Amino acid sequence: MAQIEKAATQRHIPGSDTAPPSQPYRSSPVFTEATLPLALQHDHRTKRGVWGVIRVLEGALLYCLEDGSPPRILLPGRPGIVRPDEPHHVELMGPMRMRVDFFDHEPTLLEDG
Question: Domain TehB/YeaR-like, which positions (predicted)?
Fold first, then answer.
């Protein structure tokens, strides 16, 4: 996720009051099946204290945790939660658009945004 964090389009200082708690402090660019970084398709993890929300905007994406749990299909309105320092990767299933939102606390997903 370091590559996504470097390419982030929105910035916030964790612990500051510049973004409401329900808002990400940073968001990745929107990726397509053609622009999804290879680093995200291989095992990686967020930094300590950083939560991620993988949001599929169009299409579908397979979200795989390295803890042995079954892969999960992510769809628009059905995001994937990435816990801090949790090894994971995503796999393409066809055409798609997605982004990752980053939080400095466990996100509450009342609605997909």
Answer: 26-100
